[in-house]
Specification:
Aspartate Aminotransferase, domain 2; Aspartate Aminotransferase, domain 1; about 15% strand; about 400 residues
């Protein structure tokens, strides 16, 4: 066998499959409305681009894996502004290449901890990297199905006893991709208490924590993160991809328990994940500003309102999400989600079937509201005609 078993058996990454469909449509000279990949088509804020260009070096040098001084200062300022935490309150930080690489690599540091615990728990549907990272680290991935009837909330205390006792770490992701669900502070308190009682490391994928209903700003309301509650055995993973439109820049950070971070810093130095210094400088500008993020929230909210109205009239969705830029809708009755999405793609509208974003969950599809308003409206009209034709 030329490669290891995990590599040989790993399924194609869902977004790669969507890219192939998109390419076939383009080659057929068909207009494509791509709601499949969460890569918003909103221009990156100009001061970010300017900072990157102005710090492009004439002589290239290895970047800091911890983060350059400007970035570190900007991140701490952001963390204090939003969560009231400082480096003196039990936390430490590390710069990352977006959140994806940090999410993938953390399993290498956690599988086998606490006497050999190997289970990594995570929400299902959810980010495919939770599972793949556990597999590559030699761990046991454990999907936890989220259900509409309880608001897509994670409830690890309901797991079998042998799973609870052998869980090394638990992923949470709220605001949630793909459902848009949020978590109350009371429920988060229960999650934290369970993790601490079971000696489970709590991993918070906070990629969407700055993408929420803009009306919350006037109320002084924000999605909660466990770092607001405790530093003990907690890591939060944050990213500029959605917050600041820096998907292609690959910039984020990890903040977590200062007692655990020194070993994580040592591990990350071995992973070779230092972010280029000019990207770090652009990231420093991004974390320091809130106005461009508020504008992105307004854009996403407008698209959510528009798409929700169409899908609700079609009977495919009941509740409008208060965060993220995703809509998690039911497929029409009598249809299987993959077949529905592939058939809809033939009309030029690309969406993600629930089976590609989960481990066997059927009957839903996700729209990532990334096209601009004009294209979104045109695509919704196509989707409406398509769904109505299925009922004839």
């Amino acid at each position: 066998m030329s490669l290891n078993e995990v590599t040989l058996n790993l399924p194609n990454y869902p977004m790669e499959e969507l890219a192939k469909i998109r390419q076939r449509l383009v080659q057929a000279q068909k207009k494509v409305f791509d709601f499949g990949t969460g890569d918003p088509k909103i221009p990156t804020w100009e001061p970010i681009r300017k900072a990157v260009l102005e710090t492009l070096p004439s002589i290239s040098q290895y970047p800091s894996t911890r983060g350059c001084p400007e970035l570190v200062t900007s991140i701490w300022t952001y963390l204090h502004r939003h969560f009231g935490i400082t480096k003196d309150s039990g936390f430490d930080i590390a710069a990352s290449n977006g959140s994806k690489e940090a999410i993938f690599h953390i399993s290498l540091c956690l599988v086998g901890r606490a006497g050999g615990k190997r289970i990594i728990g995570y929400p299902d549907p959810g980010y495919p990297v939770y599972r793949s990272s556990a597999l590559f680290a030699g761990g046991v991935p454990y999907p936890m199905e989220l259900k509409a009837e309880n608001g897509f909330q994670l409830e690890p205390w309901l797991l079998p006893e042998h799973v609870q006792s052998q869980m090394a770490a638990l992923w949470i992701n709220y605001p949630h991709n793909p459902t848009g669900a949020t978590m109350t502070e009371a429920h988060m308190d229960k999650i934290i208490a369970w993790c601490q009682s079971r000696d489970v490391i709590l991993l918070a994928d906070d990629c969407y924590i700055d993408i929420y209903d803009p009306s919350w700003d006037a109320q002084g309301k924000r999605p909660p993160s466990p770092i607001q509650k405790t530093s003990h055995n907690v890591f939060s993973f944050m990213s500029l991809s959605k917050r600041s439109g820096m998907t292609g820049y690959r910039s984020g950070f990890v903040v977590g328990d200062a007692k655990l971070m020194p070993a994580l810093h040592t591990a990350r130095a071995n992973f070779g994940v230092g972010t280029p210094t000019m990207i770090q400088r652009g990231a420093a500008v991004a974390w320091a500003d809130e106005d461009h993020v508020a504008e992105r929230r307004r854009i996403f909210a407008k698209r959510i309102d528009m798409a929700f109205s169409y899908l609700q009239k079609l009977g495919l969705i009941d509740r409008k999400p208060e965060a993220t830029f995703y809509l998690w809708a039911r497929v029409p009755q009598g249809w299987e989600d993959v077949d529905f999405c592939l058939k809809l793609a033939e009309e030029g509208v690309i969406t993600s079937p629930s089976q590609w974003l989960s481990e066997g969950i059927k009957g839903y599809f996700r729209l990532a509201l990334v096209p601009d308003e004009k294209d979104t409206l045109e695509a919704l009209e196509i989707l409406t005609r398509f769904v109505q034709s299925l009922k004839v």
